[in-house]
Amino acid sequence: MMVEIERKFLVDTQKWQPSGKGTQIKQGYLLAGAQKTVRARIRGSQAFLTIKGQPEGIKRTELEYEIPVKDAEIMLKMIDGFPVEKTRYIEKKGDFTWEIDVFEGKNEGLVLAEVELEN
């Protein structure tokens, strides 16, 4: 079990451009509620099933399991709504590792940066 503390920020693309190659991600939510979420994600050549528990302040439990890509493809056909498509870039700034997501498809134009914190 992992406890997650993360912060997300909107990115001004006039001030940030990717410095390396990103990884394609396609994901969808099998369950998306205030109490918990269940997500299937294909990231590059790997796939994952992620379960996130109810937030407790700025923390929440996260469980993630690698699954076969074919299983994730089947799960993505089962989601309500549309899949989220994005390219993820990893950038190190000081002591922090940032994940910057450049969205495509229905969310095109959205760019988010996320950092996970220990406390």
How are the SSEs ordered, and which strands pair?
Layout: E1 2-4, E2 6-10, E3 23-32, E4 37-43, E5 46-52, E6 60-67, H1 69-76, E7 84-93, E8 96-104, E9 111-116
Antiparallel strand pairs: 1-6, 2-9, 3-4, 3-7, 4-5, 5-6, 7-8, 8-9
What does this structure look like?
- The protein has 119 residues and is mainly beta.
- It has a single domain, classed as Hypothetical Protein Pfu-838710-001.
- It contains one helix and nine strands.
- It has one helix at 69-76; strands at 2-4, 6-10, 23-32, 37-43, 46-52, 60-67, 84-93, 96-104, 111-116.
- It has a nine-stranded antiparallel β-sheet, with helices on one face.
- The chain is globular, with a radius of gyration of 15 Å.
Mean pLDDT: 92
CATH architecture: Beta Barrel
Question: What is the chains' assembly state?
Answer: single chain
Order of helices and strands: EEEEEEHEEE
Quickly give the structural class. mainly beta
Gross geometry? globular
Strand order in space, largest sheet: 1-6-5-4-3-7-8-9-2
CATH topology: Hypothetical Protein Pfu-838710-001
**Helical residues, percent:** under 10%
